[in-house]
Design a protein that fits this description.
The complex is a heterodimer of chains A (214) and B (192). With 214 residues, chain A is mostly helical. Helices cover 72% and strands 2% of the residues of chain A. In chain A, α1 runs parallel beside α7. The model of chain A has no long low-confidence stretch (mean pLDDT 82). Chain B is built from 10 helices and no strands. Classes of the chains: A mainly alpha (214), B mainly alpha (192).
């Protein structure tokens, strides 16, 4: 039973409450750095580390943090983890760090992270909070990757720098430029809307069938 | 003088914070449903940006040369507390102004455009006046983008749009088209 519960928390972040596709949170880093799959993964990885780390710390200290200044406390904890992530990336992959530039420090202002601390980590025991953070961060990583991959394939004809098409492929330059980010995410959200619409329709049909059957 | 003008135009149009750097998207998509509100939010943001630029300059010049790794934490704490303080001050001194932009001030503090402004200005090594002009350009640019989107959204409410597209998906696509239009400004400087 216990195991089931943490599994629930993990899995909901990936699909049902996916931070990007379902809740539309954390858009700024999402769109700014997803012009290639590798950048998207680096950003997703950094966010993953920050979210899991700060969820763990916030939920461990949840009984000691005074209610009135909780937001400031959360932000300082998050900023500490972001600084660690920033310097680690600078040391390990300087090239990617240079490309992501100012957007690594900006993880602090990612509303997804603060949102999880406020809504979940500060109220639940450490184990559940970490599972929730793992799920949300994985969901965010998947969303970043799918956006980055689509933009790199269309805009550059490549994935992870490996050319996918013959030389006749004419890259859609617009996709790696800023407008491409807005358009790609818009279309992906449209797809999700359509999916939800179809599902509702299906559920209604099932309910109808049951009613006429009984 | 030329340099300052360049910085202003660049932050306002060519490198518009919202449409090119994707900063401050949350209010951009969340609050832009009426022209009136988005204009006020834009003004309040511009104001906070100016305050931030001053704070960032002071911190960079006097404090952070000794401890650059504390930059992020310092920026956030100082900006948030300064804005809170100014909010109280405005409430006391001018209730009318407070009513016009008061409710937005605390929201703006967590806006990534504000922190982004401080970080970009630091990375580029802007001095006091350059930073201030940069903040002014960025703030007006933010207001411009917000008002444009709000106008388009108000128009779109009157037309019949399939239910499926309504909401965030449509706003993002509108923003994408706006962003394409702003890309045209990139040619403004290369030719001259």
């Amino acid at each position: 039973m216990k195991k089931n519960e943490s599994y629930e928390e993990f899995i909901k972040g990936i699909w049902r409450d996916n931070p990007v596709f379902a809740q539309v949170l954390g858009m700024c880093p999402m769109l700014a750095v997803t012009n290639s799959a590798i950048n998207a993964i680096a950003m997703g990885g950094a966010t993953f580390f920050v979210l899991v780390g700060s969820s763990f710390l916030v939920s461990s200290f949840r009984n000691w943090i005074p209610k009135q200044v909780r937001i400031s406390c959360f932000i300082i904890i998050i900023a500490t983890f972001v600084t660690i992530a920033d310097y680690t990336l600078l040391a390990l992959v300087p090239k990617v760090h240079k490309e992501l530039g100012a957007f690594i420090p900006l993880i602090v202002a990612n509303c997804l992270i603060l949102g999880r601390q406020e809504a979940f980590a500060s109220r639940y025991p450490t184990r559940l909070a970490v599972m929730d953070a793992l799920g949300m961060a994985t969901g965010f990583l998947i969303a970043l990757f799918s956006l980055g991959a689509v933009r790199e394939i269309l805009g550059d004809g490549a994935l992870f720098g490996v050319k996918l098409f013959s030389e006749n492929f004419d890259p859609w330059i617009i996709m790696i430029l800023p407008p491409g980010g807005f358009l790609t995410l818009g279309v992906i959200l449209l797809f999700f809307n359509w999916f939800k619409y179809k599902k509702d329709e299906f559920l209604e049909d099932v309910a109808e069938a049951e009613r006429s059957g009984s | 003088m030329d340099n300052l003008l360049w910085i202003f135009i660049s932050a306002l149009l060519v490198n518009n914070f919202v449409l090119t750097y994707f900063l401050g998207l949350c209010p951009f998509l969340g609050v832009s449903n009426s022209l009136e509100t988005s204009f006020r939010l834009g003004l309040a943001t511009t104001f906070v940006m100016l305050v931030t630029a001053i704070c960032a300059w002071i911190l960079n010049t006097y404090v952070l040369i000794h401890a650059p790794y504390l930059r992020l934490i310092c920026f956030i704490v100082v900006i948030a507390s300064t804005v809170q303080f100014i909010e109280m001050l405005i409430k006391k001194l001018s209730p009318t102004l407070f009513r016009a932009m008061g409710i937005f001030l605390p929201l703006i503090t967590t806006n990534c455009a504000i922190l982004g402004l401080a970080i970009f200005a630091t990375n580029r090594g802007y001095g006091f006046w350059e930073g201030l002009i940069y903040a002014l350009g960025a703030g007006i640019g933010f207001t411009l983008a917000l008002v444009l989107l709000a106008g388009l959204r108000e128009e779109s409410e009157l037309s019949s749009i399939p239910e499926l597209i309504q909401g965030t998906a449509m706003n993002l696509i509108i923003a994408g088209i706006l962003s394409m239009a702003f890309m045209g400004f990139a040619g403004l400087f290369s030719s001259s």
